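Why does this matter for the project? Reviewers at the last site visit asked to see concrete outputs rather than summary tables. In response, this paragraph embeds two records directly. Each consists of the residue sequence and, immediately after it, the corresponding structure tokens. Nothing has been edited or filtered.
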Amino acid sequence: MEKAVCYVRVSTEEQARDGVSLAAQEERLAAYCRMTGLEIVEVIREEGVSAGKPLATRPGGERLLQLVARKKVKHVVALKLDRLFRDAEDALHQTKAWDKAGIALHLVDMGGQTLNTATAMGRFFLNMMAAFAELERNLIAERTATALAHKKAHREAYAPTPYGFKRVGDALLKNAQEQEIIAQIFAWKEAGWSLRKIAGELNRRGIPTKQGGRWYASTVRYLLQNSLYQEVA
């Protein structure tokens, strides 16, 4: 029989909310292994551990990777993708390495179906999941960028208060003294000064950044490229 390691995990919040107990997961995995002819070498149980932590940084996850690395098992069995990984991209990255080592990942409950990366169809579906996960991240990034652009255009507060402005409620109002510094920075840049020279001159004059620190070339570059300051230029 092919040897397998089963991995069950639940966060305290999940267990309280959904009743997704470790025992229930373990029972499902044991039934699956019996049905598919897999011999369970070890069941790794992690309670109160968030999926936000990468697999290798969890005590049980580290143990699982050790068993795989030592070639003690040929199969990794979990109930769902999110028991092991933060998202499909993480799973894809790890299972590529497992594929090369001849290790198959089995997900017992994928919307009522099972997934086995030892098969071409299982690998295909995992790739599709990774693609959809990437699409979702890109859509979130687009929405975030659009929202940020809107806030900048309407002088609404976003993240830390930017240089040249003061925050009043949710609005950004101009700080006259800092606006003069910004205008000077743009003038120096127009005169051909390098970013490092501009930062050095600001530091020489004892002009602090918004957080009270020193200026660097990267700080000056961010200011010059930020659309919030284009009207100053």
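We now turn to the second protein, recorded in exactly the same manner.
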Amino acid sequence: MNDKPAPSGLPPAVLSLAERLSGFPGVGRKSAMRMALHVLKSPRDFALSLAEALIAVKDRVSFCRTCWTLSEEDPCPICADTNRDHSKICVVEEPGDVIAIERTGGWRGVYHVLGGAISPLDGMGPDEIRIGPLLERLKGAEVREVVIATNPTSEGETTALYIARACQPFKVRVTRIARGIPMGSDLELVDDSTLQQSLDGRTEIR
């Protein structure tokens, strides 16, 4: 029996690159192959700069130990900014949500990135996301408001309610961004105006 793969007509190096690229979320085999062929057709400098960028991401980027967003510095520039309102913490699921909110230019508080949402079906409980570090931040007298900006999904709503209850022992106001964002969507995909209106129209969670 012949176990050798069927010939593709492409060099092994191209196939190997396409296989690596297909590991990216949302990238299928055909898209990965197009990307691999694009790299092949591009100047050598393009491939070198791409490789350098990939290595730099792994070597230089890590988590801010205060808010847990991605940063090359610790604390991150937002947490280190004395002009930000550190009495208000906006709680989001992923670092991409920080980028989305910062793009609106309307939020001058700081952030806390959970690293996901509560989803028992996916094995994600409260201990698997960074709710504990958030509560540690509330032990100081500085924080006055926690704005929950988890995604408007069933998992995001569950997480918001859990955080609201967990914050009850602390003397902080807990609010939820307004419903201008449609259910089931991700903050990263929402337009700036709608996201800003949601922040401005946030409501208190009781």
